[in-house]
Structures are given as structure tokens and as C-alpha cells.
Amino acid sequence: MLTESQRFACPHCGEANWVEMEPGDFGQRVIQDCAVCCRAIEILLPDHADGFIQVFAADG
Ligand SMILES: [Zn+2]
């Protein structure tokens, strides 16, 4: 299975995080805790391989 790691900055603390995505994950919305501050991050994966992920603070 081809997986790709995408790098993003935590919207809470700004530290670098990585999210693993598979081809079937395109366009998915996932929640992941920051590896540094442990707060929830909502991640909107791109709908194609060359797209960029978007991240949002997912508190509450
Ligand atoms: Zn953080």
C-alpha cells in the first residue's frame, strides 16, 4: 500500500506534525492529536496527490 506522510504545523502551538495518508484517504477529514501539545487538530486531506492539507484547531 502506498502511503505518504504530509507535514503540517499545529494550529495550536505551531510545531511540526506529520499525518500519514493513503490514496483512499483523499478528501477525508480526520482528527489527530498534536505530538507536542496533545491538543486535537482537525485535518482536511487534499482530494488529489499533489494537493495540500488544511488544518484547523479542533478544541471542544
Ligand atoms: Zn501542538
Structural class: mainly beta
Q: Which regions have little confidence, pLDDT < 50, spanning 5+ residues?
A: none
Radius of gyration: 11 Å
Helix percentage = under 10%
Question: Helix count?
Answer: 0
Distance between the termini: 34 Å
What is the count of structural domains?
Answer: 1
Sum up the overall morphology in one term.
globular
Number of E-state strands? 5
Oligomeric composition of the shown chains:
single chain
- Beta-strand residue fraction: 35-45%
Mean pLDDT rating: 90
The H/E string reads EEEEE
Mind summarizing the main beta sheet? 3 strands, antiparallel
Ligand types: zinc ion
Q: What order do the strands of the largest sheet run in, or round the barrel if closed?
A: 3-4-5
Topology:
Blueprint: E1 4-9, E2 16-21, E3 29-33, E4 40-44, E5 54-57
Antiparallel strand pairs: 1-2, 3-4, 4-5
The protein binds zinc ion.
Structure report:
This protein is mostly beta strands. The protein has one domain. It contains no helices and five strands. A hairpin with a 6-residue loop joins strand 1 and strand 2 (about 15-20).
